[in-house]
Amino acid sequence: MEIVWPRDERHWLRAGVAAALARGNVLVINEGQPVVGLVAAAFGHSVNYVTEDTFAMEAGRQTAENLDVPCQFDSVRGLERFPDESFDTVILGDISSSEEAVEGGVEEGYRLCRGGGRLIILSTSASHTPGGLQSLQELRRLLGPFRPERLHFSPHISEPWLLAWCNKPRGQTKNKSSVKSIPSLPEQHYHGELVTVLLPTFNRAYLLKRTLDAIYAQTYRNIEVIVVDDGSTDHTSDIVRAHNGKPKYIRKANGGKSSALNVGIDEARGEYLWIADDDDLPLPCKLALQVPLLQANPAACLVYSSCFVFHGSPRNIIGFQSARKLPPEKLLRALLDQELGTSRTSLYRASAIKQVGGFDESLIRSQDLDILIRLARHFPMSWSPFPTVLYRVHAGMRGAATDRFHPGENENKWLAYNQKIYRKVYHGVGLSDLDPQVSDGTDPNRIASVLVFRAKVMLKKSLVEYASYDLEQALRYLRTAKDKSEHNIPADLLENVLEIQELAILHHAHKIKRKVWQTMKTICRLDLDFILPIVDHMVLKLKEGTVWERGYYLRCLASFAFGLDYPGSSAAVAYLLKRAAWSFRCRIFPVRPKRASQTRSKSRIDADLSS
Q1: What is the pLDDT of residues 86-109, one digit of tens each?
Q2: Kind of pairing, strands 382-383 and 302-304?
Q3: Residues 6+ apart with CB under 8 A from 118
Q4: Cα–Cα distance between 12 and 341 in angstroms, integer?
Q5: Distance (Å, rounded) from C-alpha 430 to C-alpha 416?
Q6: I need a surface site. Which of 64, 135, 454, 549 has the fewest CB within 10 A?
Q7: Alpha helix (H) ranges present in 409-509?
Q8: How far from chain centre, in Å, is Cα 198?
Q9: From CA 526, how far away is CA 10, in angstroms rounded?
Q10: Would you say residue 59 has pLDDT above 60?
Q11: Above 50 in pLDDT, residue 374?
């Protein structure tokens, strides 16, 4: 019995913010899903979780065992065994059932929280949940002795949730017990195959020590750490040599991150390889969570997971980047569409990286995307449901010594190197790599769908000529399917075509826009069921877009409606489409007196349709 992991990123963000604010021994009371307790344990806290939900308690206990995180579970009745001031942090989860329940939770949290400790409240507003908190004034009133005038709220938690915290004044607990604390949970250490941690760095001495501290705080102990200094000019060498963990230090001439990684790979002795960024912080349980997943799947080249995003202090969690679980046949497409956040959280199998030839040293940026694409062509990947890294957002300089740039230039720099990677993909990755079902070449609609997908990812990287050629080929295959009366159109084909249309508008790619409309018309001639989604999409853009975009989509709608040659049985649908074009023109633009020619033209259309 395991819990169902939340799909909404806001659930994870709320858990991450609460875990980052917590300190010391943590008690979580009555949180509906035990995610907050498990994430707090993954942050390195000793956690006790109590709830009235028997299923959540049993599922959480089983999941904690599978994840190897130190979290104990008990029923709410178990609170009686804890003496006063037992915990450094008390988290009240989902306290929205009734005012009495809130008051009881706050009173119990006040009793169990140490002086100077912290109370964290997770709740919902009454506007979204019956019984939720009516106002911030109500919350301050309920917090009474916790000095509610010092109540803090997280600005990163959006409706319908609320996350607030305050510190308990020292020396104000009633009936204070002589027992000051409960024993901490036993510290767990895990051993297995050797993991080599590669830490390439360049002029990041001001961040390096904290990253090394986080690496050596892993509960998985069988590690070697190799720091590859890519020609730093600051005091990086002093930081590394003075560190208590005594990492192996290699200094080389500046050549970029890829060259530094290849040097480190040559020196690595571990079966598994963790490429750590010098500005990120791993959670203590990262390797303990990920190594067993690689052990359980010998064919996998890596295991990846989600991550939390922080700014400044690791207690300031501001976001969550999710990584989806996907079947092997969809991994390569997800990587090309950049829908799979894997690089900064991945634990690699060292032999797999060596088998694909290591990192491309001509790439100063995006070298992780390049190697992931190459790995995905040959190996499956494993997925961990649990976030394992704190990803730092900061304003430090990036790049090699010969190409340093400010974070504001990230997009342009990455685009240049991504274009190089995607050109290589276009010529080196076959359509059958993107969809094995097209290998026999017998289904023109499926081949067209893969071509449209590739056109979309090429257009995202501003490779307009590649996208235009793929759309032209897709249109040819769709016309072949029409001649053969094959109507089994893949579901994602239209979705990708509509996305290409928006990208074409963004890039002012007029040739692409014309081919998009030719493709749409061909799709609708194959299957009339696609007419309604296309019209709905255009109507939505007419309502939401700028004046220029609305004008464009109006012209598209009119062109689409007047240009289709429907069979006689679909004359009514054509009539509605054409009338919609006239209607939206009058609604969006000022109504002007009609010229005689316009009136005659519209009358002739109606007469033709009625006949």
Answers
A1: 899 999 876 554 556 566 677 788
A2: parallel
A3: 21, 22, 23, 88, 89, 90, 165, 166, 167, 168
A4: 15
A5: 23
A6: 135
A7: 410-428, 431-434, 444-460, 464-483, 492-507
A8: 24
A9: 41
A10: yes
A11: yes
Write the Ramachandran bin of 377: left for phi over 0, alpha for psi from -120 to 50, otherwise beta: alpha
What stretch of H or E contains 532?
helix 531-544
CATH match of 195-393 with 3.40.50.300: no
Q: Backbone phi, then psi, for 10, in 5-degree steps?
A: -70, -30
Element (H, E) at 224: strand 223-229
Q: Where are the domains of the chain?
A: 9-167, 195-393, 430-526, 547-611
527-561 pLDDT, tens per residue? Answer: 666 776 777 777 777 666 666 666 667 666 666 66
Place of tokens 């089994």: 488
Pairing relation of β-strands 307-311 and 272-275? unpaired
- What is the pLDDT, as a whole number, of residue 302? 95
The answer to whether the beta carbons of residues 490 and 446 sit under 8 Å apart is yes
Q: Does domain 9-167 have CATH number 3.40.50.150?
A: yes
Which pair of tokens denotes residue 387? 């976030």
SS3 per residue for 319-363: EEECCCCCCHHHHHHHHHCCCCCCHHHCEEEHHHHHHCCCCCCCC
3-class secondary structure, 307: strand
Strand order in the sheet with 307-311: 281-282, 389-393, 307-311, 317-321
Residue 267 burial (CB count, 10 A): 13
Length of the chain: 611
pTM of the model: 0.80
Decide if 49 contacts 67 (C-beta within 8 A). no
Residue 594's SS3 state is coil
